[in-house]
């Protein structure tokens, strides 16, 4: 899906938030570079592509390959401890999917608030949370038949609950080959190979970089090796809004797992903001209630 005009303030605010986090003294110069790039950006691109462009400008300006490295490490450590405890509480595949979706709250885009407070709130009410779109039955059926699954990760911290879900996937189908896709370069708080190895994702899946520096998964820009894995996968599980924005129009057996965090995605999926979604490609809102 192409960028929407309502996404434009988020592009600017992301730069402001990163500048504040890094305590940049000459941030006005960086803002001018961002605005210059935005003044000629291609509005036919997806929002994740444009976030990636701006973030690359930020990294070059700051001379820092990963401005969020310490923040990502903090949340990965914290969620590793939590995930171990919650692992014992998860009693079904659907519940594991729900935990993985709720963990999608670990997001440092400017529209999102107190991450840790929100996580505690949602994890404390898991028994009463319902998915607005629930295709877990179909997903489970496809997993049991699959020979290869590509799981597209999203944010730091969240990855620890992705690992728990992948562990259950492998128990459901011990013969399936599972790949865990990450970004090729640091972009905001998205997972890279470094983050995946930090949480031990390689214990459950083959970690593969997409070779690109955009938020999400832009198929036209991924590496040939990654594209080969994508094309060969019987099932693609795509976490988060950025992956949804990039892949929502692809013809592929994709299951989107996300929390709807903004009005643009809410309208596109036809569900309210803050909804939990496990949606098979090609379905929207109330028409998707087949699970």
Q: Can you describe this structure in just a few lines?
A:
The protein is of the alpha/beta class and 291 residues long.
Structure in words:
The protein has helices spanning 8-22, 27-39, 47-62, 69-87, 93-102, 115-123, 136-145, 158-172, 193-198, 224-232, 240-247, 263-269, and strands at 131-134, 148-152, 177-182, 206-209, 235-239, 254-259, 276-280. The protein has 291 residues and is α/β, with parallel strands linked by helices. Helix 1 (8-22) packs antiparallel against helix 2, helix 4 (69-87) packs across helix 8 (158-172) and helix 5 (93-102) runs antiparallel to helix 8 (158-172). It is globular. The two termini are 25 Å apart. The model is unreliable at 286-291 (pLDDT under 50).
Number of strands: 7
User: Which structural class do you get from the secondary structure elements?
Assistant: alpha/beta
Question: Into which percent range does the helicity of residues fall?
Answer: 40-55%
Termini gap = 25 Å
The major sheet is characterized as: 7 strands, mixed
Query: Number of helical segments?
Result: 12
Model regions low in confidence, pLDDT < 50 over at least 5 residues: 286-291
Jot down its keywords.
291 residues, single chain, 7 strands, 47% helix
Write the layout of secondary structure elements.
Layout lengths: L7 H15 L4 H13 L7 H16 L6 H19 L5 H10 L12 H9 L7 E4 L1 H10 L2 E5 L5 H15 L4 E6 L10 H6 L7 E4 L14 H9 L2 E5 H8 L6 E6 L3 H7 L6 E5 L11
Helix pairs in contact: 1-2, 1-3, 2-3, 4-8, 5-8
